[in-house]
Structure formats: C-alpha cells, structure tokens
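Posting this for the archive.
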Amino acid sequence: MLGLMQQQSLLISSLIEFAERHHGDGEIVSRRVEGDIHRYNWSAAAKRSRQVANTLDGMQIEKGSRVATLAWNGYRHLELYFGVSGSGRVLHTINPRLHPDQIAWIANHAEDQVLCFDMSFLPLVQAVHAKCPTIRQYVALCDADKLPADTGIPGLVSYEAWIGQQSDRYTWPELDENTACTLCYTSGTTGNPKGALYSHRSTILHAYAAALPDVMCMSARDSILPVVPMFHVNAWGIPYSAAMVGAKLVFPGPALDGKSVYELIEAEGVTFAAGVPTVWQMLLGHMKPAGLKFSKLNRTVIGGSACPPAMITAFREDYGVDVLHAWGMTELSPLGTLCTLKNKHQNLPEAEQMKLRMKQGRCIFGIEMKIVDEQGKELPHDGKAAGDLLVQGPWVIASYFKQEGASPLVDGWFPTGDVATIDADGFMQITDRSKDVIKSGGEWISSIDVENIAMAHPAVAMAACIGIRHPKWDERPIVCVVKKPGAEVTRDELIQFYDGKTAKWQIPDDVVFVDAIPLGATGKMLKTRLREQLTDYVLPGL
C-alpha cells in the first residue's frame, strides 16, 4: 500500500522560490572583488537567478550541460548556484588554486560550455582558454564598464551585459529529483582529479541535514559568513541551507585576511561562520594584539583539516565562541559528522568535554559509518580500535563522473581513506589518512596527535608529522615545524614539550624546522611533497 501524499520532486529551484516568497527582504551582503560592499536581498537574488536561466535558454545550452565558475564567494556566484542548476544545467565550480594545467584538464573532462569568472582570475583564464575547446562563452563577473578593452579572450562579456537584457520572469522546469545539479572535482586522490556529480535530491537532503540543531543549527535569526569557498564542495552546502531557512548571508569575496574578516563579522552582525583552520589562525592573529572582541559571533564550524586544541580553547575562553569540529569529503557533499555534545555530557568537567570537542563528531542523520581492519572485519566502537573508515548515505557518492560505471564502493560502503576510532557514544576521531599512518614497532602513531601537541607550543605556527624509515622500528615520527614570526624554539625544547602529553614511544625522534609546509588547493598539508623535500633526511643516531 502506498501513502496518499502529494508527489513533489526535491529541486534546488524550490529553495530560491521559498527564500523569495517567505524571506524576500532577507539581506545578502558581499565584499566585491573591487573592494566595495554590495547589498541586496533574497528577492533580488531570485529575480537575477531567473535572468541567468533565461540567458542559458537563449544560448540553447542543453539540459545537463556544464556551466563552470572560477569565482570567490559573492552574490553573482550565488545567482549562478540557483540559475544554472534550477534550469536543469550542471553548475561546475572549479578551484582557482589549482595549477592551470589541472584547471584546463578539469574543464575539458567536464566539457564545460560556459565559464564565469571573477576578474581577479583573468590571468588564469587567459592562460587556459586556448586549451579549453568546449567552452563557448566566457563571462566576467563584473559590471560592463569594468571589462578591459583587450583581454585576448574571444567573445568575452561582462556578467551584467550577459544577463541584463533578459526577463526576470521564468518558470523553473519540473525536473526528476535525481537529475544532476552540481559537479565538484576532488584533488585528494591519486592521478587526475575525479568528479563528484551531485543530484538535486542529494543536495536538498544535505541542506536539510546541515541546518539541523545538532549540525550547523542555521535559522532565519542567523547572519552567516561562509568563509569556506563556494568552489570548495559548494561552501559545505551553506548557500542552499541559508536559502532553506531564510538566513542573512555575508560573503567575504577575496579578502580573507584577519582584518577584513573581522571587520565584516562585526559590521554585519555575523552570528555563525564556517571555514578552515588557516583562516581562523589569521583572524585570531589579528584580534589578540589589538584586544578585539566579537559582539555577536557565537559559533563557528571548522573543517577541512583537524583544528588544533589551542584554537578551540582560544575561541571558547577568550572570545566566547563555540567551535564545532566537522568532518566530510567532496564525495560526501561534504558533511559526514559534526561535533556537538549530547545532553549527558553537559555537566562533565571542561577537560572531559574538551576531549570530545577534539573529535570530528557524531554522524548526522543520513550518514552511517563503520571502521574495519585490513581484512575488512568490522571493529568495535570502543574509542580505542582504529580502522579504515567507511560511510554510506543518500548524499554519498556511488561512482565518479565519467568512470564508465566503475564504482569505488566496497559492499555498498564508500572507503574514505581515513583511519579513525569511534567511541560508544558515536563520536568519531580521525587518527590519520591511511597513506599517512605511522606504524612503529607494530603500533600505530597518530600524526594528528603529534601535530596538535606541537601546535600548542606558543612559538609554533604550523606543524606536520611524517614517518621516517627505521631499521628496527619500521618507522619513527618526526615533526616539521614552521615557527611564528619573531618566535624562537629549539629542537630540544620542543621535544621536551611532549613530556607528559603523550606516551614516550609516540614522541617524535626529531624536529625539522622549515620555512613553509606545502599546502594543497584546499589548504590541506601535502605530506607527500614534504617527504619528497626530505628524501635525503636521516634520523639522528642512524
């Protein structure tokens, strides 16, 4: 027997329609590439999204075709989020921090038809456009009078000229909810980047889950600053959830330095912000010397890489901001877990609560996870056993774009490449990437734990732990350290700093001071590159 409910597809167009109808005067504030502040509301965003849809119809861009962006977080990018996907095309956000050759490869693999880009990426587009034969139209996200006369890019138009003559009346098509809506490539794999192709259904379900109280707790009472880029897994789905709840959106554009982010947070009454640890490091570095405080910011979600304990402590104790650890992947749309305490944890001592806050969190509804050993046997959720982390759910990838049906799944589960523990309350903690784990004398050493202790030292700006071959112990950890400007610490002082904070056999054998730790396009440490730089390194005493 079937239920007697109305059948309505879960579509991205319904989000912008809802935001316009019920939160039309809700603000959307953007710091533009030009440096000025742009203001409008959900009603205006909806009208201009329909102009985008009419423009694509007028160009006869077929349904399912890819429309690419190389853009910062801003109102025009938001309009493309809804206008492209809502009209049945696929929005393809490209990470501008990738190498030009990778960008050209990705654009060709996706067979992009249109590329919309912020003017700060003009040199990048000039470098790759001749290598991208499928792109029919280049659009600069600027006013018509800001378009340079001679860019060398044939047919280049400004965004305002591109959509300006179009009607803002449009009937969104009734699509199958399993229709593709957005495409994101992950560089966190071996070989060429792989494409994760999301559906309208998976995106709407993810938006619901992200807004839940035990996740990001987004509402119409929030002023939200997504510092996480819109080219990085759709800004963790925040633009969709913000439309779903009618929240105020504040976009930082390209100005991600501590001073600019702080000024925007205060000027726009931001209550909730989300981003990677490196951005928050710059923010705290700006605030502390000036004795600054937040007036309304009460929580921030930090993901992308593990958040150092010192950062969680600084936000909570110095500024009254709750830090919520998050974990996910491009293949998970991206949210898998988020760290919020349960009711029974509320009265625990602060030190015990902190142990939980340092974990990556609990499954959000829609995600299931398990850990397995090398033979694929499921391991207990006791907070001690560490194994390969596998996940499944309605917004978890089933196969990569254009992989001719090949599935990365193992018995219906997606192998994340992370090594983790899960405790009896469901709190998951990443101990390593499977390719970064350190096995010493038959025992696992968490490189993340080693890094977190180093990062707690007042002279350390960044730390990366890697394993070095050892004739007796198989591998031993060393920690590569970038010192804070003007700060000094010796190797012996830092080694001594580990005393009492971890088991003696887990203390790194050496400290290597470096000028910088190589980072990938999404801000994650590239330990493979670090190992290459240290190919001639020999452990002390060998």
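The chain has a mean pLDDT of 93. Residues 27 and 41 are 4 Å apart (CA to CA).
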